[in-house]
Write a structure and sequence with these properties.
This protein has 6 domains: about 5-155, Jelly Rolls (Sandwich); about 160-295, Jelly Rolls (Sandwich); about 305-380, Immunoglobulin-like, CATH 2.60.40.1080; about 390-470, Immunoglobulin-like, CATH 2.60.40; about 475-560, Immunoglobulin-like, CATH 2.60.40.1080; about 565-640, Immunoglobulin-like (Sandwich), CATH 2.60.40. The longest helix is centred in the first third of the chain and has 5 residues, at about 130-135. By secondary structure, it is an all-beta fold. The two termini are about 50 Å apart.
Amino acid sequence: MVAAIAVGFGAFAQTTSVSIPWNQYNSNLIDYQYKAADKVPATYQAAVGDIIKVHVAGTADYDITNFQVALIDDRAVVSYWSELAGFKPFAASVTKNTDFDFTVELVVKAAAVGAGSDYQKIVFDASSAEAADTAGKGGVGTSVKLTLTTYEVSIDKAVAGVTTITSNGTAGEYQTTYTDSVLNKIVNNEIDTVKKGDIVQVKISGKALTGIKQILSGLVNESSPSYWTMLSGYNQWNSATIEPGTSFSYVTLDTITTDMTNLLKADDSKGKFQNLLLLAKADSNVKIQDLVLRAQIVKPATSVQISGGTTITTANGTLQLSAAVNAEATDKSIVWTTSNAAATIDADGTLTAAANGSVKVIATVFDGSKVADTIEVTISGQANDFKGVTSITISGENDITTAGGTITLTATVNAAATDKVVIWRTEGTAATFNETTGVVTAVSNGTFKVTAVSNENTTITDVVTITITGQPILATKVVISGATSITANKGTLQLTATVTPSDATDKTVTWSVTAVPAGAATIDATTGVLTAAVNGWAYVVATSNDAAKVASAQYDVAISGQTGFGAADASFSFGPNPAVDVVTVATEEAISSITVANISGAVVLSDKSGAKSFSVAGLAKGTYVATIVLANGEEVVKTIVKK
């Protein structure tokens, strides 16, 4: 199961300004970089495979190019850090004073050794020639300002044994590269580097947990995490959609076609920068269980020859076959197959008779070369004669009209056929199909094609197209609108939720609120009316009631003008405010803790001693929020100004 940790940006403002300063550690005078610690939960510790989803929306005060984001470990000196999840682009360009809305998913490739923001920070990186030019001397002393209406980070924790491949920014494409420690599996650690003309064999296997339309791979020179050069063309692995729950195993050969002379660096030894790029085409993030990637530079097979005999004459008799691959080939592994059910063959080439007739035996070198040899074996002395498949017929209804409805399909092979095994194939996303039971389950309106293919003779098929109607149109997005504050004592605020698409079947939502302090506000789960009780903040979420259960972004409402702080009100006082040094808390209740945070939500002071005063002398001038937790469990939230 995937655990999600959602982190909203800032606890104190609906719109936030982020200043990205010039990157003094980069010789490029137009490079700007910002490290944000406030987005990482104190308990979070990055693990390989975690998905970090970053959503930003707003405007920039200068034109930006190469706007990108990463997750880093920032324990080293300020000018150096290590990447936990490499840079991924938000966009190639941003036009100043023009709204943008970007979402990127980062995949953690290196685990952090500790928890919290000391070990993990979000980094924004951007280039802006326009900002640099304002100084008349390059970027020194300049910055790029982002005015953000949305800045959200959520974390999907990795599931052991499951690899997730995320979007590359193009609709329907999901992409990752395998680098550094993984690379030792990909490029033989004994060689210095790949070069033009080398042939690299890549093997992949695993179990698809999500549907995969295509898997393609290629080799790249990845001299930086966000930029790479293709060294070979793309190779497509699968010819048909890999259905969820299906195991797969493929091999391919990639030929290096790029002259590496100008790509290599002094530390490119042992394939450090020659990496494998995996590209999947699908409808959502691709998840693969027990993914195994192996690669090596090879000399591919050029010939293979089967030997061992061509007849079986005894009942259920066996024939041991072998396949000789040319001596120069690096990988001599063989995959054995037969043309029909007159005999079966195992992985070591033992052929076992099942029916009288003839069968073709094929030995294919499993190195990606597709080099194969075929012999024909005659079988006699069996109880039954082999009968070939002449027809397949699919029976069952061809439409579904009820929400989530099902039909059952059956494939019938001609009665005389020896091999009645059928291979099912599907096309479309309007339904799901269970190959074991033949049950088709509706998902959305549209059509869904099901094909039954003879295991013996793949040219014999039957096809049925199912028409699906009557399915609900699910929500894809929920946006909250309304005012962002309540100032009247015990006042109310009507919030509105807009569900996308506009023709969604169920546009109702359920409202929820997290209040700081607890009890600062309540919300009617049905109507969206927010009612103030105590000064503080209300963080509101609206979730669609349909099967999609789509949640809105957190919507922040400031609450002020309330008459008190619950039971503590009669005896509670706080001051001086504004303050220069010591602030005194006067209350009959014992104090459990005092926490002071800046307007971005970062804690700048924490005291659990029970003292009824605290000093702001060491804080910069500005506005802060103090949270006093009383021994009875109540929280008092006060805004304090440091002079």
